[in-house]
Amino acid sequence: MHNKALKEKLIKNVKKEVKQIMEEAVTKKFVHEESASITSLCAAVEACVSHGLKRRALGLFKSSSTTALLHKIAKAFQPAANVVQLIAEVENCDPNNEKLYVCLFLSHTNNITCSNTRLAISSRLSLSLHTNYYRRSSSSGGSESASKLGVKPPLQKRNSVATMKYLWIRLALIEKHLAKIVDYIVANSSKYYEKDALVADPDYGTILSSLLVGPCALDYSKLRTAEHFWTDPPADELVQRHRISSGQFPLPASPPAHKRPGLHYKGSTGFSNSDDNMRSKDYVESLHQNSKSTLLYGKNNVVVYMKDGSEPLAGYLSLHQCGEALLLKWTPNQLMNGCTDTGVHEKSVYWEHALNVAVHETVYVHCHQGPDSDWIALVGQDGVQRPPIHFPRGGHLLAFLSCLENGLLPHGILDPPLWSQRGKGKFTYHGVNQKKTNVSATNLLVDITSKVFPKLKRKGSSRFHSSTSPLAREESTTEDLISEKGASDFVFRIVYPNFTRTYPQVEDMLEYPVWQSSPSTPKSSIPPTTPRSTPLHSVSTTSSTSSSRSLDQQCSVQEPGEPIQVVCQTMKKQIISRAFYGWLAHCRHLRTVRTHLVGLVRSDIVKSECPTDATPGLTEEKWKELQASGSVDMKEIYRLVYFGGMAHSLRKQLWPIMLSGKLEGEDPEALRREYEDKMSEWLAVEAIVRQRDKETMAQNLAKLSSEGGNSSDPQPSPKVLQTHESNEAWRNTSIKGEPKVFVDAEETLSSEPTDGNRSQKLRSVESTTASPLKTSILSEKRAENGDVANIKASNSSNSPREKPREVSFQSDAPVFFDPSPNKHDEDDDSDVSSGEESPVATRGGVYSNEILESFGLNLHRIDKDVKRCDRNHWYFTESNLDKLRNVMCTYVWEHMEMGYVQGMCDLAAPLLVILDDEAIAYGCFRNLMERMSANFPSGGGAMDAHFANMRSLLQVLDHDLFALIRQNGDYTHFYFCYRWFLLDFKREFSYDDVFLVWETIWAARHIASADYGLFLALALLAYYRDIILANSMDFTDIIKFFNEMAERHDAKAILQIARSLVLQLQTLIENK
Amino acid sequence: MATRKKVLLKVIILGDSGVGKTSLMNQYVNKKFSNQYKATIGADFLTKEVMVDDRIVTMQIWDTAGQERFQSLGVAFYRGADCCVLVFDVSAPNTFKSLDSWRDEFLIQASPRDPENFPFVLVGNKVDLDNRAVPQKRGQQWAQSKNNMPYFETSAKEGINVEQAFQTIAKNALAQETEVDIYNEFPDHITINNDSRNVRSDNCSC
């Protein structure tokens, strides 16, 4: 009968989609609203519900007929009314406006902030609708043409309006009302449907409503935007989730907020047909060794027998380690070998057969040996058995098992252990099972592996793993019966004894009846046994921990029927050997710590509580107190600041002291003079550079507009600049004026009396050093200050124009330095250092083209960065940004060999904010850079040293985290810490916290650790370690996380952790 | 993480400091322009999902520090890139001149499989400014000379042409992705063994 067949088909379709969605729920742990399976299910339900619908009954409603039906029943049935209300909200939100959907979709409004959450939900729903609509469109012409071609859910021809048709079904499903509504429709079918309608059918109607109960039980309430679906959750969400879930540690790969649906459905992975191509490729890619997962085992031509009795399929079996989870995958050859030979339909059949098993959800591994192949069957926690996997002959089963065992480490083990003993070349299998006497099953795999397998035993053990369900219990009993017949079968249980690094099986041993009845105690005279020698895979254990672990697994090995005494002896040995290896590991560990890390902390531990409690920090009262006491001890200041920071009001006064390390600080007058000198030097150069830039620019413009692609060098030939040109340049700029620069110059040159004397001195010195340019510039500088008389004199002094041309600065540098000792004697001592440091800042003052060019380049960079440095901070107004620029330029002028490197601005800015004085900020910055410059590229490679130290420290202080970092694509290069170290955490904390963090770092140098930054970095990791571990973050995840968390850390808590880490290392080293 | 996306296109944005790399990235991903960006230190990235042909892919767009001093860091960040975007400032000829060195440096550090055909896209940013100094023709010529890479003139500030540029970037990156034959790397050559079909077809009956 035709109608019957149609109904059959309709119901079958619903079944298929329900199955699909339930599988997705299980394999993905949650179902996204965007999931294509939801749309497919909606389409299938729609088809059923609209079958045989009486049009007349609904009369007035012209929209979608099933929607009309819904409106009709809404009057009598509350859940339907709720859904109707929801639909109204969605439609009001954007009334059937496709364009809006497109906009929503394309713009990815990740934060739809509607005051009405319902509205937000609805708009996201429509967003997801449209996403689906795009994803399902089979056009290859891109999104533009998609709207014309329409979507193609099963059964019906669709256009975009059709997608909207499912709206009520979708909403009802997500609101978990769908089953109820369909049930109601079925119950009242006579009103609305023809007699032969599907819902009116006594069987199909009930089937339909009961089919929908499952999908309605799923939790879709975790709304995820389209963006969430494709990307990792933002840092905020991670932190939030962690707060919610903190306490018990969640399993990796299942973030806590993803509530698992209540159903545990086990089966082969389902793949929706619509995304087949994309998915299949990705799936196959996932079989490879990649950054996210390690391939532990791979074998081709492994045969799987499907439960439905279809013929066996050969495929590729692989074992993957993803974070801490193990995944077993089996993929039919038909899928592995490309898609050319099979049709689309056939392929989807194969996808249904592909296996994807999470090992942590598997409790038993049943191993069987047959005459021509070995096979295993996996039994899950719920007792459901997977299709058996047959290995080809030749020891593959054993290889697989040992890979599995290694993969399970460190948290899980095979029980009984599959282990080899060094020297004996033996493998021993233990079958643990319920109330069974020992059944030895020798010669198990002997013929296959050509190794000796002496024993397979069933040890009496009444303990049963808590996670084992009654079903599994039943399963194992059946298994017992079978295995009695043939000895070639045995069972392994997968156990996760303990997630911590204790000795997991000690309790087990104590529970063991034999042990309890034994009065003997271990004697220390018994020598330790040799440790197990199973090769460790890429599992995250160091030698120290793995040795103790491998010993654990040895403990359950005894021969059957041995006298109790022997058993006790064995145990004694094991206990002692464990102790011995524990001690050995500890010694090794300490040796590493001492050799590598001893230099990182100071050996003397400074306590916070003596002589006084330092935790309140250096308050104003405390500072007054210290000053009143007469002699201020720097050490005490450091101690107070280290443990509690200082009062904000003290910073201006104390920062220069802390940075110089001298109580008296630097002489501000000398500093100021030096600063002004430097500034006048580079201001002159800047003027030249400016002028030349203008010329070059004009030149370029002319050239570019005339001849397009010719990339000839626009720079003038590299010879010494003519004084004529430069002088003109200078005059031009000084006449036109760069007002802001000169305003600042005036400010800084305001200390009149000394300045006047000095300028006289300087001039006399400089005129002897054949530097007409310099002199002229300087004197014009003075002219700006009102010293007009000098202009003519200086201008007349630069008459020998050709002279400087012969002098190449680079080659003649020593010559230029020669006269300077003279000057140094006359000058203040604060000048001495700078004269030596800087090859550029010669008093000679003729600047080679190279110097001009390179300073010009630096100026551009400084300008670019100063402009955008902390411009959202209240302090950095135009004029204060100019101050920052001056400090920067002066420093760079003094350190031309290094030049300006990005990040310097960031380091200078907080100093300027606190000190609000260019010269002093400059002095402090110079002091700060003495330490920090090594971090900058080409500054001395301190960064690499930091990373290396991070590696060592993390290994010692937080091994688990280190293991994760190494495992997840190995980012132990620690490049994600780059900005932390380069900027001394300046961008990691909010501005106010930066002050505290910085002074703590400075103080720590003197009383705790010269590399306190390392401990801060570790503290940042430690603070979020659980989140990092729980989400099994890789390099990109961690970069994203910390970039998003920047300036939002709890500085006090992190400093506290850092201090305790320092103390921890200090104690570790001290207790030799 | 459980929500990890599968098709991921890694895009690296390179160019001198201040040409607007961060702004371009943010304009494209967040549709926002801010004048509050600081100089990028280290590296940052944003992700965005796009439709390329009929597929949804995730673009992971990496924004790097512009000063050439930091290039040594590149190794860690460039690895596995699917496309490289070279950005210059049309008002600053120097940023145009350094394109060659950025391109070379990228090819050295990322060492892509097929450097000859690795997809680059050239972007001349800041076309909204009046003081343009690099004519369009020059940009085109350079792009043509380098394996005919696509060239876009954009303004991250005004949002001009940004979307189009990144669409092309995504497209080219995806093309690059799919060209790589995934089966090449497969550990074992697989042959369907017909003999294995005569194995007993019972289920594990334990």
How would you characterize the overall build of this protein?
The complex is a heterodimer of chains A (1072) and B (206). With 1072 residues, chain A is an alpha+beta fold. Chain B has a single domain (8-198), classed as Rossmann fold. Chain B has helices at 21-30, 74-78, 93-97, 99-110, 136-145, 162-179, and strands at residues 8-14, 43-52, 55-64, 83-89, 120-125, 151-153. In chain B, strands 2-3-1-4-5-6 form a 6-stranded mixed β-sheet, with helices on both faces. In chain B, a hairpin with a 2-residue loop joins strand 2 (43-52) and strand 3. The relative contact order of chain B is 0.18. Residues 1-5 and 180-206 of chain B have low confidence and may be disordered. The interface between A and B is large, with 119 and 72 residues.
Low-confidence stretches of chain A: 94-163, 221-231, 247-278, 338-342, 420-487, 499-558, 708-844
The H-and-E topology of chain B, N to C, reads as EHEEHEHHEHEH
Radius of gyration of chain A: 39 Å
Count of separate DSSP helical elements of chain B = 6
CATH architectural designation of the largest domain in chain A: Up-down Bundle
Roughly what is the average pLDDT of chain B, rounded to an integer? 83
Please work out how many helical segments of chain A DSSP would assign.
49
Structural class of chain B: alpha/beta
First-residue to last-residue Cα separation of chain A: 90 Å
Strand order of the largest sheet of chain B: 2-3-1-4-5-6
**Total tally of structural domains of chain A:** 5
Strand content of chain B: 15-25%
Strand order within the widest sheet of chain A? 4-3-2-1-7-6-5-12-8
